[in-house]
Amino acid sequence: MRKTLWIICSLAYLLSSCESKAQTFPDETWTRAENPETMGWPDAERSNFTRYIVDSTNITGLVLVHKGQIVLEYGNINENSYIASCRKSILAMLYGKYVENGTIDLDQTLEELSITDVTELLPEEKKATIKDLISARSGVYLRGSNGGDFRRFAPERGSVAPGSHWLYNNWDFNVAGHIFEQETQNNIYDEIETQLAKPLQMQDWDRTLQQKSGDSNISKFPAYHMWFSTRDMARIGLLMLRNGKWKDVQVIPEYWVHEVIKQRTSYSEAQKSVPLLKEDGLDLGYGYMWWLIENTNDPKLKNAYSAQGALGQNITVYPNIDVILAFKTNSVYRRRNSIQTQMKVIKKAIEIYDAK
Fold first, then answer.
1. Which segments within 194-271 are labelled E, that is strand?
2. How many whole angstroms from its chain centre is CA 266?
3. CB-CB neighbours of 208 under 10 Å
4. In this structure, what are the phi and psi dihedrals at residue 232, rounded to the nearest 5 degrees?
5. How far is CA 226 from the centre of its chain?
6. Residues paired with residue 129 on neighbouring β-strands, in sequence order
7. Cα–Cα distance between 352 and 88 in angstroms, integer?
8. Cα–Cα distance for residue pair 33/16, rounded to 1 Å
9. Is there a domain that residue 4 lies in?
10. Which CA distances in Å does 258 have to 167, 290, 303, 307?
11. How big is the CA angle at 305 (ends 299 and 307), to the nearest 5 degrees?
12. Could you tell me the CATH number of the domain that includes residue 95?
């Protein structure tokens, strides 16, 4: 009898372990949790958070996903709009397939790749590699064809060796997009469709909205702007949380996901290069075009990372608690959120979660 009881208990433990590790993914539509409160998201706290979003932010769409199910949503989550610099994090994901199969060699230099621009590159700048570009450590301080970076904090051109200094400069990211297309012979937007939109069954992806822009008199490399819906941004986050795997398919190489969110620049170095970052409300390091949340005592925030864009575009992944947050601010409505507001939302969203 005792042996039978031991076997039953062992089987029950194994079954419960398997159930706890089961991973939920959306199909053509997202699943909404039937009772978020039982999952650790009290109704009263979720209502308070929603009131905060309404009263203290200009967010136009937000979803909070726990264990693959929506536990909170606000605003218009199916509306496609400009996601600003979140585009860079998505490009980083696209790189993985081609780094793995050898099409892209991250150690190739700008000189080897025949990169030239309206303003001629200095000999030292030509030594920068693709790896330097996607980690914002190129040492090339030319103006990008679009604004919205920290180039005003750049050292004098040619004064630092590639790889030795972090600076968030759109020239790096735009050239990284150009190199991706040059080496793969594929369009970035077509790659989003084949690598991400179709496998992830994105509900709102619209290839016709996607277009590049920039001032070609400043730089010949345009910015590869992107338009996504909030709920499709959440799919991007869930793919990253699941280490590049969607259901039974490895969409992005698992090792590449870890490479992307591996620290290339610490928060202290980033703040030394750009003192304004000290005012953001969270300490942010940098990987391959993803921001890393560092120097936090909150276990819910440890190991978290974000794609962030101007005006209030954000995808944050919280691996320790199996949570995704995606939100945006559609500029069409003449609304915007500061980076400080974004950081507050990132923190407040999980303050309401009670793991017990």
1. 227-228, 245-246, 249-250
2. 17
3. 7
4. -80, -30
5. 13
6. 109
7. 30
8. 20
9. no
10. 22, 11, 11, 15
11. 150
12. 3.40.710.10
Residue 3: is its pLDDT beyond 60?
no
- β-pairing, 313-318 vs 291-294, is unpaired
* Mean pLDDT value of segment 320-327: 98
Q: Cα separation of 107 and 110, whole Å?
A: 10
Phi, psi for residue 290 in degrees, rounded to 5 = -125, 145
Distance, in Å, from the CA atom of 303 to the CA atom of 307, rounded to the nearest integer, reads 14
pLDDT, tens digit, for every residue of 164-215? 999 999 999 999 999 999 999 999 999 999 999 999 999 999 999 999 999 9
Residue pair 64/70 in contact by the 8 Å Cβ criterion: yes
- Range of the structural domain that residue 158 is part of: 47-351
Q: How far apart are CA 271 and CA 162, in angstroms?
A: 19
Number of domains making up the chain = 1
The C-alpha angle 121, 128, 155, rounded to 5 degrees, equals 70
The pLDDT of residue 19: 36
Confidence of residue 334 (pLDDT cuts 50, 70, 90): confident
% of residues, the chain, pLDDT over 90:
91
Angle at 336 between CA 347 and CA 343, to 5 degrees: 15
What are the Cα distances from residue 84, in Å, to 148, 175, 291? 9, 16, 14
Is 7 contained in some domain? no
> CA nearest 226: which of 341, 94, 68?
94
Q: How confident is the model at residue 355 (pLDDT cuts 50, 70, 90)?
A: confident
Q: How confident is the model at residue 18 (pLDDT cuts 50, 70, 90)?
A: very low
- Pick from 331, 344, 348, 328: nearest CA to 76: 328
In a domain, 356, yes or no: no
Tell me whether residue 271 is in a domain.
yes
Helix (H, G, I), strand (E, B) or coil at 228: strand
Q: Which three-class secondary structure state does DSSP give residue 285?
A: strand
Separation of alpha carbons 338 and 313, rounded Å: 10
Look-up of token digits 């991400």: 196
- Residue 223, strand partner residues: 213
Quick one: 2 exposed, middle or buried, by C-beta within 10 A (0-12, 13-18, 19+)? Answer: exposed
